[in-house]
Specification:
The protein is of the alpha/beta class. It contains six helices and eight strands, in the order αβαβααββββααββ.
Length: 237
């Protein structure tokens, strides 16, 4: 796990219907082979990306795989530099908040099959703003890296993934879940809804229009009902 303080808890053990979907996706990841592999989980804010990443990591670890977990939220530009660019508006958040170069250099390139395996799971802590880029974790030759985060399939980093997972929910459900999740952190439900609707949702709209990740990701999961997700791609047999 990353040293970042921006953490969400591991979900409770999945019920049978969720477990069935998790097993299928874990099989797909395991099937990438006995080598280093990098898996990305993307989707609207509050879609359930981090929870799914935790669940898959624990499932694969129980199979004997060495699994590293990271979040793209830990690879953003430091707030001290925000006077240099806009990262508060929806478009600014999409264009400027994330540090793709740091994600490549510290995380994705070392975790490649031909990389050196010396992986930093966090660049800048999004809460404390502490630089953790020198804190590294060894990744064995058959290790798995599971990364969650918005905009994971943007062109700057998309070619680094060995498997791409998109978590599908309705945009308005994303706003409702994001409001509930972030209200305590930002001080009120109104502020949390504004954050979800005016920053994250606008940024996602730009991303979907420019990148269209649903056109090429290998796995799509409808996570509208957390207990009963539906595997859309690959199609359930």
């Amino acid at each position: 796990m990353s040293v970042s303080t921006w953490r969400q808890p591991v979900p409770a053990e999945a019920g049978p219907e969720r477990a069935a979907v998790l097993d299928v996706v874990a099989d797909l990841i395991d099937g990438l082979g006995d080598r280093r592999s990098r898996v990305a989980i993307d989707g609207y804010t509050a879609a359930g990306k981090t929870s799914l990443g935790h669940e898959l990591a624990h499932r694969l670890a129980r199979r004997g795989r060495r699994v590293l977990r990271a979040s793209l939220d830990d690879f953003k530009r430091p707030w001290r530099d925000r006077h240099l660019y806009d990262r508060a508006s929806g478009e600014g958040y999409y264009r400027n908040a994330f540090d793709a170069e740091a994600a490549r250099r510290l995380l994705l390139e070392p975790a490649a099959p031909g990389g050196d395996g010396v992986v930093a799971l966090c660049s800048i802590d999004p809460i404390t703003q502490v630089d953790h880029s020198s804190v590294t974790t060894p990744m064995p030759g058959n290790g798995l890296l599971i990364v969650d985060g918005m905009f994971a399939f943007r062109p700057e980093i998309d070619h680094h993934w060995d498997l791409r997972i998109w978590i599908q929910i309705d945009p308005e459900l994303s706003v409702r879940r994001g409001t509930q999740r972030d209200a305590a952190m930002v001080g009120s439900e109104a502020a949390a809804e504004a954050l979800a609707r005016d920053r994250y949702l606008v940024a996602e709209g730009i991303y979907l229009a420019e990148v269209d990740p649903l056109a090429f990701v290998e796995v799509v999961i409808d996570n509208t009902d957390f207990a009963k997700p539906r595997l859309i791609r690959p199609a359930e047999s």
